[in-house]
């Protein structure tokens, strides 16, 4: 019998595909069921955020940071404001720092909940999505009460925060924390031990520790591969050094490990919120100078600052030339760096694992495209 | 601590590239910063930064670029996951013909970050395996983050 001639086929996944939760294209070269080559194509959502920054007053850029990773806007607000504060060398009022921590951690849980729900939806489980969004809604209600918005908060300002907590808000947060504790515990009984879920995720999409570091991956992806780095702990910023919490890590490096890290992180965030609600002092919420936004003029200089967002390490490189507009703002978006690993990770995988692997990276396209 | 690290890095680079190759070595917000010209920056130096037992800068956190109008600068932010210290490296390159070596063969993290700089700032990274536009369409003209870039409002439908 003569040998059959076969050739590979190019297949476009996206730009409109339900599992990408945004506009993202994967150009796949497939040999039957197997992926020979995968090339991510992005930029469909590019808004020129970094260029826009150069035309605004320092404060006016904050709403644009909301729209990078819109699942975790509080941390984006924080990293931008804190980079400018570092250039200005300002002291931030205690109460503002506590409100920042509480809102950032609530937002981190909300972000992980969206991942948890949509990821399971992607791999075929319908009901977890409803549980996740029920709980996320409670968090968004709390954030709405303090900031006036559900997702694009613009709550952190240079020098502090915009609004003080309304009457009884902290008690409500404590109530929410208790509720979330029980509900997230339920996730384990619902999904974590599920045999079908484990069969789809254990041993799939394995990333070694060396690869994680060389590719610059961060966040739960890195911690799922045994890289014990969480900037809240390893390079404490804000007031994170005052709280008692752990860094959940797993060493397997597969999709299941990343899942376990994210679920465990939600409990750690709850711990931080609990402590912050107890310790928070009365006082100012923004420095006097922070209220005069036309006058925010950092001295000429530059600084790179990075913090831990829900997707990984988010950084801002801010350059000031002494005027009231930034000379250059560079944004290190964790999803943009994390998505690059797909080129390597998908090689040789079968198509049925593609969505399970891609989803496990928790990529937000608003952040990839900036 | 940071000052000692800065001295050590400066010494290593001087041994490799010859004395006076570093234009400036200082502490920027308590972190070491090295400024040098692109002809004194090569993969040899990068490999030393990454593998030297007292440096071990194994994590490339961020690649950024600034257009200073007279010249351009590419900034690499390194971090050591094992020794927990940071480094800024600023590499100067002329504005007329901005060329710098790519770190992609050593740090895969540079793959997308350098492509983004190439796309938006127009700096050429030699040795990059796949240097092409990443955020803007392939047929886009110009590099928007340059200070002299003029936005074509008509083409964008804004006028």
Automatic annotation (TrEMBL), chain A:
Q: Where is the signal peptide?
A: none
Enzyme class label:
translocase
Q: Which Pfam families match?
A: Complex1_49kDa
Recorded GO CC terms: plasma membrane
What is this enzyme's catalytic activity, as reactions? a quinone + NADH + 5 H(+)(in) = a quinol + NAD(+) + 4 H(+)(out)
InterPro entries named in the record: NADH_Q_OxRdtase_suD, NDH1_su_D/H, NiFe-Hase_large
What's the Enzyme Commission number for this chain? 7.1.1.-
Tell me which PANTHER family the record gives: NADH DEHYDROGENASE [UBIQUINONE] IRON-SULFUR PROTEIN 2, MITOCHONDRIAL (PTHR11993:SF10), NADH-UBIQUINONE OXIDOREDUCTASE 49 KDA SUBUNIT (PTHR11993)
Protein name stated in the entry:
NADH-quinone oxidoreductase subunit D
- Provide the species name: Salipaludibacillus neizhouensis
From TrEMBL, chain B:
SUPFAM superfamilies, from UniProt? Nqo5-like (SSF143243)
First-tier enzyme category under EC: translocase
For the NADH:ubiquinone oxidoreductase 30kDa subunit domain, which residue ranges apply? Answer: 44-153
A GO molecular function annotation here is:
oxidoreductase activity, acting on NAD(P)H
Q: Which InterPro entries match?
A: NADH_quin_OxRdtase_su_C/D-like, NADH_UbQ_OxRdtase_30kDa_su, NADH_UbQ_OxRdtase_CS
Q: What is its EC number?
A: 7.1.1.-
Give the source's domain of life in one word. Answer: Bacteria
Key word Translocase present? yes
Alphabetized UniProt keyword annotations: NAD, Quinone, Translocase, Transport
* PROSITE patterns recorded: COMPLEX1_30K
Which transformation does this protein catalyse, written as a reaction? a quinone + NADH + 5 H(+)(in) = a quinol + NAD(+) + 4 H(+)(out)
| Coiled-coil blocks | none
> What family classification does the UniProt entry report for this protein?
Belongs to the complex I 30 kDa subunit family.
Free-text function comment from the UniProt entry: NDH-1 shuttles electrons from NADH, via FMN and iron-sulfur (Fe-S) centers, to quinones in the respiratory chain.
Q: What is this protein called?
A: NADH-quinone oxidoreductase
Task: Please give the organism.
Answer: Salipaludibacillus neizhouensis
